[in-house]
Protein backbone atom coordinates (compact mmCIF):
# COMPACT_ATOMS: atom_id res chain seq x y z
CA UNK A 1 0.00 0.00 0.00
CA UNK A 2 1.55 3.32 -1.06
CA UNK A 3 -0.56 5.86 0.80
CA UNK A 4 1.12 7.76 3.63
CA UNK A 5 -1.82 8.67 5.91
CA UNK A 6 -2.60 9.95 9.38
CA UNK A 7 -5.29 8.84 11.85
CA UNK A 8 -8.24 11.13 12.56
CA UNK A 9 -9.38 11.25 15.57
CA UNK A 10 -35.31 0.28 11.56
CA UNK A 11 -36.12 -1.38 8.40
CA UNK A 12 -38.92 0.29 6.41
CA UNK A 13 -40.79 -0.63 3.26
CA UNK A 14 -39.65 2.60 1.66
CA UNK A 15 -35.93 3.02 1.21
CA UNK A 16 -34.75 6.30 2.66
CA UNK A 17 -32.73 8.61 0.43
CA UNK A 18 -30.39 11.34 1.64
CA UNK A 19 -28.82 14.54 0.37
CA UNK A 20 -25.99 16.67 1.69
CA UNK A 21 -22.53 16.08 3.12
CA UNK A 22 -22.01 13.41 5.78
CA UNK A 23 -18.89 12.00 7.44
CA UNK A 24 -18.57 8.22 7.11
CA UNK A 25 -16.36 5.42 8.30
CA UNK A 26 -15.32 2.88 5.66
CA UNK A 27 -16.40 -0.58 6.73
CA UNK A 28 -15.29 -2.61 3.69
CA UNK A 29 -13.98 -2.55 0.16
CA UNK A 30 -15.64 -5.12 -2.10
CA UNK A 31 -16.68 -7.64 0.59
CA UNK A 32 -17.32 -11.26 -0.36
CA UNK A 33 -20.45 -13.24 0.53
CA UNK A 34 -19.20 -14.26 3.98
CA UNK A 35 -18.09 -10.75 4.84
CA UNK A 36 -21.44 -9.36 3.75
CA UNK A 37 -23.18 -11.85 6.03
CA UNK A 38 -21.09 -10.57 8.95
CA UNK A 39 -22.36 -7.09 8.06
CA UNK A 40 -25.96 -8.34 8.14
CA UNK A 41 -26.32 -8.43 4.35
CA UNK A 42 -27.41 -11.79 2.96
CA UNK A 43 -26.86 -12.60 -0.72
CA UNK A 44 -27.39 -15.88 -2.55
CA UNK A 45 -24.18 -15.88 -4.57
CA UNK A 46 -20.74 -14.33 -4.50
CA UNK A 47 -20.75 -10.86 -5.99
CA UNK A 48 -18.94 -10.34 -9.27
CA UNK A 49 -17.20 -6.98 -9.26
CA UNK A 50 -15.50 -7.50 -12.65
CA UNK A 51 -17.10 -7.21 -16.08
CA UNK A 52 -15.76 -7.02 -19.61
CA UNK A 53 -16.98 -5.23 -22.71
CA UNK A 54 -15.27 -5.45 -26.11
CA UNK A 55 -12.10 -6.72 -24.46
CA UNK A 56 -11.89 -3.94 -21.85
CA UNK A 57 -12.33 -4.87 -18.20
CA UNK A 58 -14.33 -2.80 -15.72
CA UNK A 59 -13.74 -3.13 -12.00
CA UNK A 60 -16.43 -1.81 -9.67
CA UNK A 61 -14.77 -0.66 -6.48
CA UNK A 62 -17.60 -0.92 -3.94
CA UNK A 63 -16.91 1.14 -0.83
CA UNK A 64 -19.22 0.38 2.10
CA UNK A 65 -19.84 3.42 4.29
CA UNK A 66 -21.39 3.87 7.73
CA UNK A 67 -21.91 7.26 9.41
CA UNK A 68 -21.63 5.58 12.84
CA UNK A 69 -24.51 7.68 14.18
CA UNK A 70 -26.65 5.75 16.66
CA UNK A 71 -29.47 8.31 16.46
CA UNK A 72 -29.64 8.40 12.67
CA UNK A 73 -27.58 5.51 11.32
CA UNK A 74 -27.01 5.68 7.58
CA UNK A 75 -25.21 3.05 5.52
CA UNK A 76 -24.55 3.40 1.83
CA UNK A 77 -22.35 1.95 -0.91
CA UNK A 78 -20.23 4.28 -3.00
CA UNK A 79 -19.17 2.73 -6.31
CA UNK A 80 -16.28 3.82 -8.51
CA UNK A 81 -16.13 2.10 -11.89
CA UNK A 82 -12.56 1.68 -13.13
CA UNK A 83 -11.95 0.86 -16.79
CA UNK A 84 -8.73 -0.83 -17.84
CA UNK A 85 -7.86 1.72 -20.48
CA UNK A 86 -5.93 4.98 -20.70
CA UNK A 87 -8.40 7.80 -19.99
CA UNK A 88 -8.66 10.15 -22.95
CA UNK A 89 -10.45 13.46 -23.50
CA UNK A 90 -12.75 14.16 -26.45
CA UNK A 91 -9.92 16.15 -28.02
CA UNK A 92 -7.59 13.16 -27.81
CA UNK A 93 -5.42 14.28 -24.88
CA UNK A 94 -4.33 11.53 -22.53
CA UNK A 95 -4.64 11.64 -18.75
CA UNK A 96 -1.62 10.88 -16.59
CA UNK A 97 -1.24 10.52 -12.81
CA UNK A 98 1.83 10.58 -10.59
CA UNK A 99 2.82 9.04 -7.25
CA UNK A 100 1.29 12.00 -5.39
CA UNK A 101 -2.11 11.49 -7.00
CA UNK A 102 -1.76 14.60 -9.17
CA UNK A 103 -3.13 14.38 -12.70
CA UNK A 104 -2.10 15.97 -15.99
CA UNK A 105 -3.59 16.00 -19.48
CA UNK A 106 -1.16 15.82 -22.38
CA UNK A 107 0.57 13.69 -24.98
CA UNK A 108 3.32 11.14 -24.58
CA UNK A 109 5.62 13.80 -26.05
CA UNK A 110 4.61 16.20 -23.27
CA UNK A 111 5.56 13.59 -20.68
CA UNK A 112 8.88 12.80 -22.39
CA UNK A 113 9.81 16.49 -22.75
CA UNK A 114 8.44 17.56 -19.32
CA UNK A 115 5.94 19.95 -20.92
CA UNK A 116 3.90 20.28 -17.74
CA UNK A 117 1.78 23.12 -16.38
CA UNK A 118 3.93 26.01 -15.13
CA UNK A 119 2.77 25.62 -11.51
CA UNK A 120 3.97 22.03 -11.53
CA UNK A 121 7.48 23.09 -12.48
CA UNK A 122 7.88 25.71 -9.75
CA UNK A 123 10.86 24.97 -7.51
CA UNK A 124 11.40 25.30 -3.77
CA UNK A 125 14.50 26.71 -2.08
CA UNK A 126 16.28 23.40 -2.52
CA UNK A 127 15.57 23.29 -6.25
CA UNK A 128 12.93 20.58 -6.10
CA UNK A 129 9.88 20.96 -8.30
CA UNK A 130 6.52 21.49 -6.61
CA UNK A 131 5.27 18.25 -8.18
CA UNK A 132 7.05 14.94 -8.75
CA UNK A 133 7.48 15.11 -12.52
CA UNK A 134 9.25 11.76 -12.87
CA UNK A 135 6.51 9.37 -11.78
CA UNK A 136 3.65 10.10 -14.22
CA UNK A 137 2.03 6.99 -15.65
CA UNK A 138 -1.10 6.45 -17.76
CA UNK A 139 -4.24 7.07 -15.70
CA UNK A 140 -7.02 4.50 -15.98
CA UNK A 141 -10.57 5.77 -16.34
CA UNK A 142 -11.75 6.96 -12.89
CA UNK A 143 -8.45 6.03 -11.24
CA UNK A 144 -8.01 9.62 -10.04
CA UNK A 145 -11.41 9.54 -8.31
CA UNK A 146 -10.40 6.41 -6.40
CA UNK A 147 -7.00 7.83 -5.47
CA UNK A 148 -8.60 11.07 -4.30
CA UNK A 149 -11.04 9.13 -2.13
CA UNK A 150 -8.21 7.21 -0.49
CA UNK A 151 -6.05 10.32 -0.07
CA UNK A 152 -8.92 12.03 1.71
CA UNK A 153 -9.92 9.04 3.83
CA UNK A 154 -6.32 8.35 4.93
CA UNK A 155 -5.51 12.05 5.47
CA UNK A 156 -2.54 11.96 3.11
CA UNK A 157 -0.56 15.20 3.24
CA UNK A 158 0.13 17.06 0.00
CA UNK A 159 3.36 15.79 -1.50
CA UNK A 160 3.28 12.46 0.35
CA UNK A 161 2.97 9.15 -1.54
CA UNK A 162 -0.55 8.51 -2.81
CA UNK A 163 -0.79 5.79 -5.40
CA UNK A 164 -2.14 2.28 -5.80
CA UNK A 165 0.76 -0.11 -6.06
CA UNK A 166 -1.03 -2.83 -8.02
CA UNK A 167 -3.75 -1.50 -10.30
CA UNK A 168 -3.78 -4.77 -12.26
CA UNK A 169 -4.99 -6.61 -9.13
CA UNK A 170 -8.15 -4.49 -9.04
CA UNK A 171 -9.04 -5.71 -12.52
CA UNK A 172 -8.52 -9.32 -11.41
CA UNK A 173 -10.87 -9.07 -8.42
CA UNK A 174 -8.13 -8.68 -5.79
CA UNK A 175 -9.01 -5.78 -3.48
CA UNK A 176 -6.68 -6.70 -0.61
CA UNK A 177 -4.55 -3.58 -1.09
CA UNK A 178 -7.57 -1.37 -0.49
CA UNK A 179 -8.80 -3.39 2.49
CA UNK A 180 -5.34 -3.04 4.04
CA UNK A 181 -6.20 0.60 4.61
CA UNK A 182 -8.88 -0.39 7.12
CA UNK A 183 -6.26 -2.04 9.32
CA UNK A 184 -4.23 1.16 9.45
CA UNK A 185 -7.08 3.68 9.74
CA UNK A 186 -10.05 1.94 11.37
CA UNK A 187 -11.42 5.13 12.93
CA UNK A 188 -10.88 7.59 10.09
CA UNK A 189 -13.86 9.27 8.51
CA UNK A 190 -14.34 10.82 5.08
CA UNK A 191 -16.86 13.41 3.99
CA UNK A 192 -19.06 12.29 1.08
CA UNK A 193 -21.68 14.42 -0.66
CA UNK A 194 -24.86 12.41 -1.18
CA UNK A 195 -27.44 13.23 -3.80
CA UNK A 196 -30.61 11.87 -5.28
CA UNK A 197 -30.77 11.24 -9.02
CA UNK A 198 -33.97 11.12 -11.02
CA UNK A 199 -33.64 8.45 -13.71
CA UNK A 200 -35.32 8.66 -17.11
CA UNK A 201 -38.27 6.60 -15.88
CA UNK A 202 -38.75 8.88 -12.88
CA UNK A 203 -37.20 6.48 -10.37
CA UNK A 204 -35.24 8.13 -7.57
CA UNK A 205 -31.90 6.56 -6.62
CA UNK A 206 -29.16 7.41 -4.14
CA UNK A 207 -25.99 8.71 -5.72
CA UNK A 208 -22.68 10.22 -4.60
CA UNK A 209 -20.50 13.06 -5.85
CA UNK A 210 -17.14 11.64 -6.93
CA UNK A 211 -15.22 14.75 -7.93
CA UNK A 212 -14.43 16.00 -4.43
CA UNK A 213 -14.35 14.42 -0.98
CA UNK A 214 -13.80 16.06 2.41
CA UNK A 215 -11.49 15.04 5.23
CA UNK A 216 -13.13 13.87 8.41
CA UNK A 217 -12.08 16.97 10.34
CA UNK A 218 -12.79 19.53 7.59
CA UNK A 219 -15.34 22.29 8.20
CA UNK A 220 -14.67 24.44 5.09
CA UNK A 221 -17.11 23.44 2.35
CA UNK A 222 -16.11 26.21 -0.09
CA UNK A 223 -13.86 23.97 -2.20
CA UNK A 224 -16.63 21.40 -2.46
CA UNK A 225 -19.06 24.11 -3.53
CA UNK A 226 -16.59 25.30 -6.21
CA UNK A 227 -16.19 21.74 -7.49
CA UNK A 228 -19.92 21.10 -7.70
CA UNK A 229 -20.55 24.44 -9.42
CA UNK A 230 -17.82 23.73 -11.98
CA UNK A 231 -19.27 20.26 -12.63
CA UNK A 232 -22.72 21.72 -13.23
CA UNK A 233 -21.35 24.47 -15.48
CA UNK A 234 -19.78 21.73 -17.63
CA UNK A 235 -23.08 19.93 -18.06
CA UNK A 236 -23.12 17.63 -15.04
CA UNK A 237 -25.83 17.12 -12.49
CA UNK A 238 -28.93 18.29 -14.31
CA UNK A 239 -30.92 15.44 -12.75
CA UNK A 240 -29.13 15.22 -9.39
CA UNK A 241 -30.17 17.03 -6.21
CA UNK A 242 -27.45 17.48 -3.58
CA UNK A 243 -29.34 20.10 -1.63
CA UNK A 244 -28.19 23.68 -1.30
CA UNK A 245 -24.87 24.93 0.03
CA UNK A 246 -23.62 24.32 2.73
CA UNK A 247 -25.06 20.87 1.96
CA UNK A 248 -26.59 20.08 5.34
CA UNK A 249 -27.18 16.35 5.63
CA UNK A 250 -30.84 15.34 5.76
CA UNK A 251 -33.39 12.88 4.45
CA UNK A 252 -34.53 13.67 0.94
CA UNK A 253 -38.09 14.88 0.47
CA UNK A 254 -39.29 14.36 -3.15
CA UNK A 255 -40.64 17.35 -5.04
CA UNK A 256 -42.68 17.65 -8.21
CA UNK A 257 -39.67 18.85 -10.21
CA UNK A 258 -37.07 16.30 -11.14
CA UNK A 259 -33.44 16.90 -10.69
CA UNK A 260 -26.34 14.14 -14.80
CA UNK A 261 -25.91 10.73 -14.88
CA UNK A 262 -22.14 11.21 -14.58
CA UNK A 263 -22.52 10.71 -10.84
CA UNK A 264 -22.63 6.98 -10.14
CA UNK A 265 -25.77 5.21 -8.99
CA UNK A 266 -25.89 3.70 -5.56
CA UNK A 267 -25.80 -0.08 -5.95
CA UNK A 268 -27.03 -1.88 -2.82
CA UNK A 269 -24.35 -4.55 -2.83
Number of strands: 16
* First-last Cα distance: 25 Å
Percent helix, as a range, is 10-25%
From the alpha-carbon coordinates, what is the Rg to the nearest angstrom? Answer: 19 Å
Reported for the largest beta sheet, the result is:
11 strands, antiparallel
Structural class: alpha+beta
Order of secondary-structure elements: EEHEEEEEHEEHEHHEEEHEEE
Low-confidence stretches are: 258-264
Approximate shape: globular
**Binned strand content:** 25-35%
Number of helices: 6
Overall average residue pLDDT: 90
Topology:
Elements (H helix, E strand, L loop, with lengths): L1 E2 L14 E12 L3 H6 L11 E4 L2 E11 L8 E12 L7 E4 L5 E4 L1 H6 L23 E2 L1 E2 L1 H11 L8 E2 L3 H4 L5 H9 L4 E10 L5 E5 L5 E2 L6 H12 L6 E2 L8 E2 L12 E2 L4
Antiparallel strand pairs: 1-10, 2-4, 2-11, 2-15, 3-4, 4-5, 5-9, 6-7, 6-8, 11-12, 11-13, 11-14, 12-16
Q: How is this structure best described in words?
A:
With 269 residues, the chain is an alpha+beta fold. It has a domain at 2-6 and 14-79 and 176-265. It is 18% helix and 29% strand. It has helices spanning 33-38, 108-113, 143-153, 167-170, 176-184, 222-233; strands spanning 2-3, 18-29, 50-53, 56-66, 75-86, 94-97, 103-106, 137-138, 140-141, 162-163, 189-198, 204-208, 214-215, 240-241, 250-251, 264-265. The chain is globular, with a radius of gyration of 19 Å. The model is unreliable at 258-264 (pLDDT under 50).
Amino acid sequence: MAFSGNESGSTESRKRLYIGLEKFKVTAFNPNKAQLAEMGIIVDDELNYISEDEGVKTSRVAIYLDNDDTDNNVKTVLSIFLRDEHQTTMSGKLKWINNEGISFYGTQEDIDNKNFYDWMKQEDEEGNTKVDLESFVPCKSNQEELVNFIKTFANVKNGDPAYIENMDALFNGDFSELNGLLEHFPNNKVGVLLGVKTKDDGTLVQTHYLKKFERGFSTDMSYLQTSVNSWRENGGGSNVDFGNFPYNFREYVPTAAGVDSSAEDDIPF
